Amino acid sequence: WAASAFVPTATPMTSATSHNAVVDVPQYTAGASGMSLLGQSVAAAAVGAAAMSAMSRRRATRSTGRTAAHAFDTELGVTMPFKYFDPLGMSKDMDEATFRRRRVSEIKNGRVAMIACMGYIAPEYFRFPGFLSPSEGLKFTDVPNGVAALSKVPAEGWAQIGAFIAFLELFPLRQEADRAAGDFATCGKLGVPWFFVAGRDGSTSDPVANERSLNAEINNGRLAMMAITGMVTQNALFGTTGPEMWFP
């Protein structure tokens, strides 16, 4: 009897202990789950806020880019089919002074690129007679075309070229603030340099009457900048400026 009485007494205690253990574990698990859910909610809210912030910045960037485009969409160079072409949004922070500075640089680089393209093709068919460097016995016909000429022309020759360019930039072809971008008082129609003629004044560009020609110059300069980049790249890859460069 004592043994049988002991067993029921022990069983409720064990059950109670088991019950308490079962109850405690769900309570602890529920607390951990709540904390986990709270953390997930905070993380989701943070991700959503970051996404909304990024979208807002993109909208602001697009809006600013559109504003810049509308501000300069009547300038020269805004032509079909691209009109105001700025896919990288580089003009989103641009004001009138910045636009003018970049337009002056664009026209200048375009003109240099057009001359460079002709300089890549013409020497294949024509070379100046005589000596490039009499002291070194170097003739114009001895200088290869393309990038190979960089190592053949003497340092004194490059110094003379650099000095001449600096002279043009500082004096006869210096951009004046009161004239249109790329327009110089020392040059006439089609860029004829009157500064070689003492006392001869150049012409003033008319952006309305010469709109077609001015747009053509800007677009041709853009094309020439792409073209000379391709020429130099092909020349460096194929090691020649002959037909092999053009028809690999």
Which helices and strands appear, and what pairs or packs with what?
Blueprint: H1 2-72, H2 96-121, E1 131-133, E2 138-139, H3 155-170, H4 211-238, H5 243-246
Antiparallel strand pairs: 1-2
Average per-residue pLDDT, rounded, comes to 78
Percent of residues in β-strands: under 5%
Order of helices and strands: HHEEHHH
Order of strands, widest sheet: 1-2
Measured between the Cα atoms of the first and last residue, the distance is 109 Å
Largest sheet: 2 strands, antiparallel
Structural class: mainly alpha
Cα radius of gyration in angstroms: 38 Å
Shape: extended
How many helices? The count is 5
Number of strands: 2
What would you say this structure looks like, in words?
The protein is mainly alpha-helical. It contains five helices and two strands. A two-stranded antiparallel ribbon has the order 1-2. Helix 2 crosses helix 4 (211-238). The chain is extended and about 75 Å long.
